[in-house]
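TL;DR need structure tokens for one chain.
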Amino acid sequence: MLSSVIRLEDYAVSDNNGFLPSSPPLAKLPSFYEPWELLASQLSTLIKDESIRSLIDNLPILNVTWLQSEPEWRRAYSVLGFLTHAYIWGGEKPRDKIPPCITKPFLEICAHLGLPPCATYAGLTLWNYTAPDDADISNPDNLSLLTSFTGTPDEEWFLVISVAIEAKGGKLVTLMLDTIAAATANDVPRVTALLCRFTDGLRDFNSTLQRMYERCDPDVFFYQLRPFLAGSKNMASAGLPNGVFYDEGNGQGQWHQYSGGSNGQSSLIQTFDIFLEVSHAATGGISGPSGYLQEMRDYMPASHKKFLEVLAHFSNVRSFVMSSPAEQSLKESYNAACLALAAFRDTHMKIVTRYIILPARRGAPKTNASENVNLATASAQVDGLRDETPSGLFGTGGTALMPFLKETRDTTKDAAFD
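>> reply
TL;DR here they are.
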């Protein structure tokens, strides 16, 4: 069996929870790191009263020596990612210099985990939730956040929807490995049956994603949360022409430009493409879907990125279907899986339209007095590239929103056989 060749635990992947930790993320670091945790626990309030930057400036430089277990390293990464983006975006204008009290420990933590020093999908989502003991974490109703920029239920719902989808994906990871193994063994009936189960799983994902509308208001997302998810890459329009300087003290440091937190950094979604052998070859836009998705792997934990590389080496399902032209039910089951994944991407496009495109067109609501209103629209525009996308808006990962989403949706549909 392929599962004996690809041992999920070697890649920090769980057969129950997928790319989520096998047990709930650590809720709090050891007492030595209390200065970080104290700010994280009050983050939304400190952003609102504009004290977050001065409090971060006064933090001591804490040594990472006391981080022992992987859950501790992950929690530290998540907390410092939140503090970094709160420092950059937590005011009327962005700050382009991160102080040594954040930079020095953050860089060491990132080296350990194989991640960039910014708020990524891993720190915002995978390692930032909690749930009651024995609760079903594939149900977003059972989930809550450990750390939040805004403290709003809207932000919590937006992020835990992704957590729930990731949890549902855990069961599909093993199923995908079994399907690849069945294709290797030339077992047509088993591949057909497993593809049907895979399609059912994708449809369940779609139903969960559609629950986004229940508790996340588009204006709250766009004007209050989204600015904090923005990166430092191509952000001249928002006030970061050079990106952000990570000050290591004593005159040392470097300028960096990073993409913001994005669902494009989900290893699970890219696993689906690899499994179905969907090719998102560059077809236009700024860099094309293929280039962007490959770049987003640099924002995944190193172990997860390695899993995708290994899986791509073994993936054979589409090739197997092509080599079995007489097996109509096999082809139909593969096509159904591709169309279910395309439908999931259709739902994502509708959410982007409602939560980004439409609020940007309407302009700030009169009741919103937030200092970050201007940053919401500015951080959605990539400097010098506005004419390359009809909406003029870009995702937090830096892609032209609708062209990218349409291209990935269409190439997913195109993978199906006529």
